């Protein structure tokens, strides 16, 4: 679907010159340049093939955006089905029900999804979506009771999932992203009434419901949350005191600190083009002073931005930053023009904050889980950005759920 979608985009005169296509080309060229130059500098560490999918797979959203056709309803259905898929996965795989039982009894679980950090990211992203689109579930109308019940159940599952996966980076990201989301809704009266269409009654009901669920789950899991937060207080204290040598490299935080320091040394040697696709593993495996246990257990840096810098240098980070800027600016402009619903723009803004934070502590974009979430959400945003660009360039009046004229 992604390849066919990309082919169809290239056939469309309206959007084939869009920034994502040029940035995809830039990503390919950056990876090729890093691979070619590596053969002259460190041929023994360069793979036989340039592995262009490392950054190229971040652009699978291009095909998704084309298939969605600039329409809101299919986008929301796609995201809802993805969340439903998460719920089904968490109970139907080999360890699903057992992990729910263990998690509810206070243990850290991962539901068989790579590790707990990745499962937590899935549930955290779903939680942001449920809150951002709560008006659609809580507003009166047909099937209102069923919609509200389903929203409440899904909210409870996501909150429980975030808690039982016990990933502090996800908790931190939500503690920052959720207040920002609330501020965006509450500060601007125009955003509430004209764009989001938020009714005070619905806002209060949604807010009270969410707080009630948080309070119940927080009380039920108070012990496990407290243990997880206090697990590495000594390491945090040593870090704040600047006593790096005293930090245990086998601890979660200590491992990250030591590998990040190693990464900065490798980045300093080749800051522009990096070390190629294997850069992240080289920074761990070939750094002599890192503990042997760290070299044996880890082959990545737990930080997306450091991994891109090590692998592809400043050029790689530039491509990433340019994509983020284009999507962010396009989301803002599409919302202002009425091509993107306000709650979708709200979700996009809060997800961006959440995504920036969690990728500081795990390299999600280097794993299939992060690539999956990134492309689903960015694809939904970009399809509306393209809708705005196409309709504005043709002078077509925007209507709700209008399809791209090029389809």
From TrEMBL:
It holds the Pfam family Wzy_C. Keywords: Ligase, Membrane, Transmembrane, Transmembrane helix. The chain crosses the membrane at residues 21-40, 52-69, 76-96, 116-133, 145-164, 170-191, 203-225, 309-328, 340-358, 364-386. It is a multi-pass membrane protein. The keyword Transmembrane helix applies. The keyword Magnesium does not apply. It is found in: Membrane. InterPro entries: O-antigen_ligase-rel_domated, WaaL-like. Residues 154-320 form the O-antigen ligase-related domain. Its main location: membrane. One of its GO terms (cellular component) is membrane. GO terms for molecular function: ligase activity. This is O-antigen ligase. It comes from Onishia taeanensis.
């Amino acid at each position: 679907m992604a390849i066919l979608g990309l082919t169809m985009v290239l056939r469309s005169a309206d959007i084939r010159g869009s920034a994502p296509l040029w940035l995809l080309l830039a990503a390919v060229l950056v990876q090729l340049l890093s691979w070619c130059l590596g053969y002259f500098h460190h041929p023994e560490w360069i793979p036989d093939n340039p592995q262009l999918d490392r950054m190229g797979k971040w652009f699978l959203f291009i095909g998704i955006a084309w298939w969605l056709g600039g329409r809101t309803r299919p986008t929301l259905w796609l995201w809802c089905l993805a969340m439903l898929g998460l719920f089904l996965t968490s109970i139907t795989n080999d360890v699903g029900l057992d992990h729910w039982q263990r998690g509810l009894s206070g243990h850290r679980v991962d539901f068989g999804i790579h590790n707990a950090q990745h499962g937590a990211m899935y549930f955290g992203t779903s939680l942001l979506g449920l809150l951002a689109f709560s008006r659609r579930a809580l507003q009166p109308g047909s099937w209102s009771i069923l919609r509200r019940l389903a929203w409440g159940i899904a909210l409870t599952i996501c909150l429980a999932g975030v808690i039982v996966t016990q990933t502090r980076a996800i908790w931190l990201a939500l503690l920052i992203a959720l207040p920002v989301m609330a501020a965006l809704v509450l500060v601007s009266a125009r955003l509430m009434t004209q764009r989001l269409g938020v009714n005070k009654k619905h806002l209060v009901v949604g807010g009270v419901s969410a707080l009630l669920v948080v309070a119940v789950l927080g009380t039920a899991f108070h012990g496990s949350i407290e243990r997880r937060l206090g697990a590495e207080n000594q390491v945090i204290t040593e870090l704040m005191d600047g006593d790096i040598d005293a930090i245990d490299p086998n601890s979660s935080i200590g491992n990250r600190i030591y590998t990040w320091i190693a990464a900065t040394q490798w980045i300093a040697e080749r800051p522009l083009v990096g070390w190629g696709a294997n850069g992240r593993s080289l920074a761990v495996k070939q750094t002599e002073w890192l503990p042997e246990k760290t070299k044996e257990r880890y082959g990545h840096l737990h930080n997306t931005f450091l991994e891109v810098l090590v692998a592809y240098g400043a050029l790689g980070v530039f491509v990433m930053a340019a994509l983020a800027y284009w999507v962010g600016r396009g989301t803002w402009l599409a919302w202002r023009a009425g091509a993107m619903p306000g709650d979708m723009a709200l979700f996009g803004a809060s997800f961006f904050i959440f995504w920036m934070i969690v990728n500081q502590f795990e390299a999600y974009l280097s794993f299939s889980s992060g690539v999956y979430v990134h492309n689903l959400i960015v694809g939904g945003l970009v399809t509306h950005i393209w809708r705005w660009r196409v309709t504005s360039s043709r002078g077509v009046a925007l209507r709700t759920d209008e399809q791209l004229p090029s389809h």
